[in-house]
Amino acid sequence: MQTQVVLTSSQGKRLIARGIRAWEPVKEAMRHGIVAVSKGTTNAYVAEELLGEPFDKTHYCFGRISPAGTETSWLKSDVPDVVFVKGQRAEGMTVLEAVAKMGPGDVFFKGVNAINYDTGQAAVLIGHPTGGTMGGTLGGLIARHVRLVHPAGLEKNVPGDLAVAARRMAEEGAHVGEAYGLWVSQGELFTEVEAIETLFDLEALPVAAGGIAGAEGSVTLALFGSKLELENALRLVGEIQKEPPFGPAR
């Protein structure tokens, strides 16, 4: 049997965060290790779900993409980093400090700007001269065998090999106006598909994208499985579809 659901960008972020909270590698790291959530819009939802309490997500942001001319001064990065050690928030510990203490079985979350879901690629637009969070953490994460996970909505899915795009952008060099670099990561993706398949005994398949009247950037998923599991999924999705757009409280 099947059903289909439509999720806006913010609803997808909430679903991804719910799935991550229920994901066994994260549950294990929360019990016995370290989980670090770097700043970003999708990661703000992840932090809120792992904290288990309301969280001002607009204050947990770094880079972002928004329409030209849009006023975004309400986006901040002034909330302390969210890091857990054996399930308890490590007050005052930054994600950069956490990397030095992490090891196999620990989980580090980093947001991205682009994915190619078919190839499993994820990439980050880089404007900081030393690479920002990626530049400050990637070497340590690799050396320490930490699980690097990129929570990302399917709205960020783009065609083509991201490594080719990154090389082309680097080769051209000179630019007019803004032109960021593109860093392709070896981390793993966690999208709405992984969230559904973590939370339910279902197969999730992206079948459409976009829309109007607030559904711009949305994703339509076809879900396949038993009637009971589909009904369970629809109940959760119905709750998540009440999620407001990302932004300041109205």
Number of helices: 8
Sheet with the most strands, sense and barrel status: 6 strands, mixed
The global form is globular
Q: Strand order, main sheet: write it out.
A: 4-3-2-5-8-10
What's the mean pLDDT score? 93
Q: What ranges have pLDDT less than 50 throughout 5 or more consecutive residues?
A: none
Number of strands: 12
- Computed over alpha carbons, the radius of gyration is 18 Å
- Could you say which structural class the secondary elements and strand pairing correspond to? alpha/beta
| Ends distance | 39 Å
Q: What fraction of residues sit in β-strands?
A: 15-25%
Helix content percent band: 25-40%
What is the N-to-C succession of helices and strands? EHHEHEEHEEEHEHEEHEEH
Describe this structure in words.
With 250 residues, this protein is an alpha/beta fold. The chain has a domain at 24-191. Helices cover 34% and strands 22% of the residues. The chain is built from eight helices and twelve strands. It has helices at residues 9-22, 24-32, 41-51, 95-99, 132-143, 162-172, 192-199, 227-240, and strands spanning 2-7, 34-37, 82-85, 88-89, 107-109, 114-116, 121-126, 147-151, 181-185, 188-190, 203-209, 219-224. The chain has a six-stranded mixed β-sheet with strand order 4-3-2-5-8-10. α1 crosses α3 and α1 crosses α7. The longest helix has 14 residues, at 9-22. The chain is globular, with a radius of gyration of 18 Å. The N and C termini lie far apart (39 Å).
